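ARCHIVE RECORD
Type: protein–small molecule complex
Small molecule: iron/sulfur cluster
Source of inputs: curated submission
Record status: active
Notes field left blank by submitter.
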Amino acid sequence: MKPFAYVKAATPDEAVRACAARPGARYLAGGTNLVDLMKLGVESPEVLIDVSGLRLDGVDELPDGSLTIGATARNSEVAAHPLVRGRYPALSQALLSGASGQLRNAATTAGNLLQRTRCTYFQDTAKPCNKRLPGSGCPAIDGAHRELAVLGHSVHCVATHPSDMAVALAALDATVLLHGPDGERTVPVTDFHRLPGDRPERDTVIRPDELITAVRVPPAPEGSVSRYRKARERASYAFALVSAAVVLDVRNGVVHHAALAFGQLAHRPWRARAAEEVLLGAPAHPDTFTRAVDTELAAARPLRDNGFKVTLARNLAVGLLAELAAENA
Ligand SMILES: Cc1cc2nc3c(=O)[nH]c(=O)nc-3n(C[C@H](O)[C@H](O)[C@H](O)COP(=O)(O)OP(=O)(O)OC[C@H]3O[C@@H](n4cnc5c(N)ncnc54)[C@H](O)[C@@H]3O)c2cc1C
Ligand code: SF4
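STRUCTURE (tokenized, with ligand):
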């Protein structure tokens, strides 16, 4: 690992100033992704600005019923929080399905959103990779891409975003709160991660030196139920092959509200807007669910070895919708 300087920030302003003052500075939260990548030589920051002491670790309810989850709140604490478990089961389930207990005790909200792809070429500095070294090529397209994207990819990158939590947040219409040199702003989680296009080195729309301070989740639609499901290759900790989060409200046999997001199909959590259009106002019937999910997945462009992910996503989402509809009828 290359030598680096270390600064512990006491306030968000101090963190942003410290980051802006030192080219090559990076924020450090739980370190479970960043430090791993530093050991591999993929990341080599000059300075680490430790944000774990910023007191951004609360989970708070606002007067309008929305929830603010602090950037440095640990994944395990958020998953166990009574308001999260009670109102947003999909979020709690997504967090609990991620990594291992020890990792969830260290990993934070912001770090989880900003974790980098698990594409093996990205992690191997002996190989070309447009995300790690722009312009060097994408060996995954013709190489090992079994776990990579089937939607929204480009000739420059076919990586997926690995976060489970982000998928549930996308279905729940959460927003990311950012604090930067130019002030504060919010970005919907669905717009926070980018599709690769011709700039795959940029995972998100975050600006230089911007600090995530929190994630805000609006009140769950009244009467709705939600669930997260993850298909993976082993029962103990493993990244998803495909995952799905569903928020559903059925009234008198008709879909009154539906939100569906997929994980590990694309460079970002994939909010299934085309499927939702089919679902809204339609009978809550397995035929509707299949038609809706097929409409969404018609845009899939699988690579040589990952067509199975389209079938897996279809079965996962149709099954989840049917389960929730039966419970919510
Ligand atoms: C073995 C293993 C298995 C895993 N399995 C899963 C899994 O199944 N599902 C899953 O979702 N994840 C999984 N993970 C990933 C894990 O969830 C992430 O490593 C973790 O969430 C990152 O959080 P962190 O706080 O440690 O971030 P860090 O490693 O500290 O930081 C990650 C990135 O976020 C930036 N950052 C951190 N905080 C802020 C902030 N407030 N503002 C701006 N930038 C910030 C850092 O600069 C860095 O770029 C796994 C990890 C490992 C090692
Ligand atoms: S898919 Fe993206 S991350 Fe993987 S090798 Fe290609 S450019 Fe790199």
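CURATOR ANNOTATION: The chain has a mean pLDDT of 97.
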